[in-house]
Design goal:
The complex is a heterodimer.
Chain A lengths: L8 E7 L5 E4 L5 E2 L11 H11 L5 E12 L2 E4 L2 H8 L19
Antiparallel strand pairs in A: 1-2, 1-4, 2-3, 4-5
Chain B lengths: L5 H22 L5 H10 L2 E3 L4 E6 L4 E3 H14 L3 E4 L4 E4 L7 H10 L16 E2 L14 H11 L14 E4 L13 E8 L2 E8 L11 E8 L3 H15 L10 H8 L1 H15 L6 H12 L16 H10 E3 L5 E6 L10 E3 H14 L3 E4 L5 E7 L3 H10 L14 E2 L14 H14 L2 H4 L4 E4 L13 E8 L2 E8 L11 E2 L4 E2 L3 H15 L7 H8 L2 H7 L1 H7 L1
Parallel strand pairs in B: 6-7, 7-8, 16-17, 17-18
Antiparallel strand pairs in B: 1-2, 2-5, 3-14, 4-5, 4-13, 8-9, 9-10, 11-12, 12-15, 14-15, 18-19, 19-20, 19-21
Helix pairs in contact in B: 1-2, 1-4, 3-4, 3-11, 5-9, 6-8, 7-8, 11-12, 13-15, 15-17
The chains are: A alpha+beta, B alpha+beta.
Chain lengths: 105, 549
């Protein structure tokens, strides 16, 4: 049986102190913007990054989330990750604050 | 209302200090997340999609005005200016930082509120009829018993690691507004020889495997309540499955063993534990009952109800009180297009002020995610309505199609499989645009964003369940559910609907009901019971009907 090919991923978690959604950037820092996340295209590399990034005093619940690579940067392929990246859709209270049409800064 | 004594205050202060230390140890790395998680859950702290969430218990849904002001303060100081009232008479804060939660708990403790056992495999917040103490149809106020159960279950040494969570609801009225038949234990007050007692219902629950509870005791004297509940939970603790999370609730234990075997086990355990209860609980109950004495009602001459807007509000949002010169006012947190159950800090403070000005300072939170002023003088109704309306809280839709229960869904919840809030918002706006909801009349629409059914979709006249179908939000519709004393689980209508198709589907359903009902007196659920699901399915799936023709 053929193995499913590895698809691009980003490493994500929540900050321990604040709870905010964060992504691992290429320089090893945790950033809040998905656009700044490092896109992992090699499975072995992704697994190593996952192990290395599991710093329990900084973040909670690290995992690899699937993305597609677009000219504007990585985009989630699943709606759950889309909401995590942008915030709830009933208020402009999350990261989408000021970014959605009609939003007020 | 119950007021904490020194024992309660000391207990809560010590518990908060313990949790503060646990948070500190988590932050400095002394505790791993695996070690910390059960501790935070027992104190109501979840990690959700975007942030931590703090769930605060509102025991049996009762609040004082000062308590409501502190709930508003928490929203303003540590959240984003609001809170979300839930289907278990709790309030959830969606955005606190872990580092701030100990301070939030201390502030709650100042007014006798806490988050203990609002999560975890323990006995959760005891819920009650939201009209308790005010309802005209009530045998007796169930809240003293609910408070006794709260005290008994809080930090109960035997019941901190049950197979799964455990929910108790109690009502003092034959008209069940507390959904008692969908709880692990439902207590339905009844009378025998002039003395109040309870019909004890067990094994109800919604979620993945919805079940209507079964009667384990037709009549239980109030004096036996604690030992009998102790026996039920003890039997569940012993027989409840721990090998499969999805089969761990009491409803499965009852289903797999049979109600007769469970009854025998409960009665046997009851015989063992009954002698251990020496009467001190009943002494405590009489002390608690004294604290729930009704307010000093002021006789008044009801004000005339003038103007269409006020008349509509009174017709829809006002319920008969035990006294003719008072009224129960339900304040809708479901303005068309609003997030069901959300209240801003300003709205909460206003409600506290209005409760003090017109309703003896008492408030209630319903499992239907609204706020109740249980004792409003009828001479104050016009003034109260004017104040509510000015603050955007005057929506006259209680019990109507836009008074929708909705769980937080995937906008917030880590367990959700689809969104529920925007679906509720869009249905409410569509119904408002059609201007039909007063014509449609009594209709319960309930929406859950996953199979766990926090939005009670199984017992909605129209239930909507949001699922993830191959990476796309999809909504199943159930019909014919009922949350009252005639409790029933709704039946699935057919294939699910895409996110952008669910509102038109609900619209078709409602319009079809208007066409086929026998008259304005026949409610949606009555029409469903008379006609069965077929005409409603035909409205939901018109293409299939066409294909079959």
């Amino acid at each position: 049986m053929s193995r499913k090919p590895f698809t691009p991923k980003v490493l994500t978690a929540n900050l321990l102190r604040e709870g905010a959604v964060v992504y691992l950037a290429a320089d090893g820092t945790w950033v809040e913007e998905l656009a700044r996340a490092e896109v992992l295209t090699d499975e072995a590399d992704a697994q190593v990054r996952l192990i290395e990034a599991d710093r329990p005093s900084v973040v909670v619940g690290t995992y690899l989330a699937e993305v597609e690579i677009t000219p504007g940067g990585p985009r989630p392929t699943h709606f759950r990750e889309d909401f995590r990246a942008t915030g709830p859709t009933n208020y402009d209270h999350g990261k989408a604050y000021g970014q959605r049409p009609g939003s007020e800064q | 209302m119950y007021h904490y004594d020194q024992f309660d205050r000391d207990f809560l202060a010590e518990r908060n200090a313990q949790f503060r230390a646990q948070v500190e140890r988590r932050l400095d790395g002394s505790l791993t997340e695996d070690e910390f998680k059960p501790l935070r859950l027992m104190n109501g702290v979840y990690l959700q999609l975007h942030a931590y969430m703090l769930r605060v218990a509102i025991p049996y849904g009762t609040l004082s005005a000062p308590q409501m002001r502190v709930l508003a303060e928490l929203g303003d100081r540590w959240d984003k200016g609001y809170g979300h009232f839930t289907t278990r008479q709790n309030i959830q804060y969606n955005w606190p930082r872990l580092v701030d939660i100990p301070d939030m708990l201390d502030r709650l403790g100042d007014v006798g509120l806490h988050a203990i056992q609002t999560s975890g495999n323990t006995i959760r917040n005891v819920t009650a009829d939201h009209f308790a103490g005010a309802a005209k149809d009530e045998i007796a106020d169930p809240r003293p018993v609910a408070e006794l159960l709260r005290q008994w279950s809080t930090d109960h040494p035997e019941f901190q690691f049950l197979p799964r969570k455990f929910k108790i609801a109690v009502t003092g009225s034959p008209n069940d507004r507390a959904v008692t038949r969908a709880h692990d234990i439902g207590l339905l007050m009844t009378e025998r020889d002039g003395a109040p007692g309870f019909e004890v219902i067990i094994g109800g629950g919604l979620g993945r495997t919805p079940m209507i509870g079964k009667t384990v005791r037709e009549f239980l004297p109030v004096a036996d309540l604690l030992p009998y509940c102790e026996a039920i939970v003890s039997v569940y603790n012993r027989l409840g499955r721990r090998d499969n999370k999805f089969k761990a609730r009491l409803k499965i234990t009852v289903h797999e063993n049979g109600i007769e075997a469970i009854r025998d086990a409960v009665e046997a355990r009851f015989a063992e534990v009954r002698p251990l209860f020496d009467g001190s609980a009943m002494n405590a109950l009489s002390g608690i009952e004294a604290q729930f004495a009704p307010p000093a009602f002021v006789a008044n001459t009801p004000a005339p109800i003038e103007g269409a807007v006020l008349r509509s509000f009174v017709d829809t949002n006002v319920t008969a009180h035990r006294r003719d010169d008072h009224a129960i006012v339900t304040v809708s947190l479901k303005a068309h297009g609003a997030t069901p159950g959300d209240a801003t800090g300003d709205q909460m403070r206003l409600l506290a002020d209005l409760a003090e000005a017109h309703a003896y300072g008492e408030l209630r939170i319903s499992h239907e995610q609204n706020v109740i002023l249980p004792h409003v003088r009828r001479d104050r109704l016009p003034e109260l309505h004017a104040a509510l309306k000015a603050a955007g809280l005057g929506t006259a839709n209680i019990g109507l199609a836009s008074d929708i229960i909705a769980c937080p869904g995937m906008d917030y919840c880590a367990l959700a499989t689809a969104r529920s809030i925007p679906v509720a918002q869009q249905i409410a706006m569509r119904i408002d645009a059609l201007k039909i909801e007063h014509e449609v009349g009594h209709l319960k629409i309930k929406i859950s964003g996953c199979i766990n059914a926090c939005g009670h979709h199984h017992v909605g006249h129209i239930g909507i369940l949001g699922l993830d179908r191959a990476g796309v939000e999809n909504y199943q519709i159930t019909l014919g559910g009922d949350h009252t004393e005639r409790a029933a689980i709704g039946e699935r209508a057919g294939p699910g609907f895409a996110y952008d198709q669910v509102v038109p589907a609900i619209e078709r359903l409602i319009l079809a009901y208007l066409d086929i009902r026998e008259g304005a007196g026949e409610t949606f659920i009555d029409a469903f019971r008379r006609l069965g699901p077929e005409p409603f399915k035909a409205a939901l799936y018109p293409q299939e009907k066409q294909d079959a023709a």
